[in-house]
Specification:
CATH topology of the largest domain: Pyrimidine Nucleoside Phosphorylase, Chain A, domain 2
Mean pLDDT: 89
CATH architecture of the largest domain: 3-Layer(aba) Sandwich
Number of domains: 2
Helix content: 40-55%
Distance between the termini: 63 Å
Number of helices: 17
Largest sheet: 8 strands, mixed
Length: 398
Amino acid sequence: MSMRHFMPKIGELTLTSVDEFDFRLLIKALGKGEKGSRALTFAEASLLLEGFSKGKATRVQMASAMMLMRVRGETTEEVAGMVAGLRHTLDHDWRSLAVDIDWPVYAGKREQLPWLLLVAKLLASQGIRVMLHGDSLALPHRRHVESCLSAVNIACCTTPKSANAALQSDNIVYVRAGDLAPVLDECRQLHQELGLRSLIQTAVRCINPANAPISLRSYFHPGLDNLHQGICEVLFANGEYHDGSIAIFKGLQGETECNPRVSTTITVVNGQTDNIAVSSLSIPTLLEGFSGAKVGQAELSSEILALLWGEKQPFVSSELTALMSRTMIEQALSSITATLATVLLLVSRKSAMTEPNTTAIITAEQAVDLSLKCWENRFNTTDSPLKQWRSREFLCAV
């Protein structure tokens, strides 16, 4: 019998500072044969990412670790550790920003415009601070949020100072992942060279750079909902996340936007000091039996976002209907309604969690109804349904 069957696993390592640690030990733990290898612990994965960001772990070592974890299948602890490592590399000024909603947008969409931008813009117009962050180079064949920012006058900022100015003036900002943490650009280059998806693509969605009390997480592939839930629980348990509510759902083409053609199940992870509660809710199907609307959307100009935002009667707008079919408009508006309803549901539950006596919790049907009213009244900045809701302290957590 081969001696490899008796090869003992490498036990948990004694970790030192990034500057003193021998990162070959982590690669050896991951790659010591069929029986001798093991997954990294939360602390080890965090140290590996920090080491790579400081040039202490080499490109070869990081690429090897990414490959070994991908082949075996990354564990929740490994991905959560990478999230923690990424957060530790952030400039502390990012964490000082006053942000209500953390909105990662990394997937892009294959042919549709990012209708979610109009939801974020609506929330910002009502005084809710939104921070979008993404990486348009990770999947360059898709239509990313970043390419449409100028159409709806959302600033793309590169520093905490400029981001703070945008939040102060507009309540909304977009930041590239590489400007949040430069190591993310290096990680993207590695996984593109390898030609494999890496755990970094999951981890980056979870960094919540400004520690916003509400965060959205989307996924596409089956099983990633459970992974994201586990990541949240590990990060709360290790003190990396503090008080907050996180919504996890299957996004439209993977992006952080609801698909109105199907019902959307949302897993909500509420974390407080020494307490993690997980619940589930559902946004109903808004386009039952709907078909069509996909053909021709790849050619749509981002300027349509501005047209749709400014048009009170889109179905009879000659300018808009010359560019979009009725089914395209219907799908866009339904995506906006479903996505905004998701945010409203999350906010109401966050409010109820922090203020036990509030009557903030609403049903999914009420959230959809409120979402429709908010969109219809989006130009009313003094007496909109969302403003009325806030005035009754329903959004006290935000």
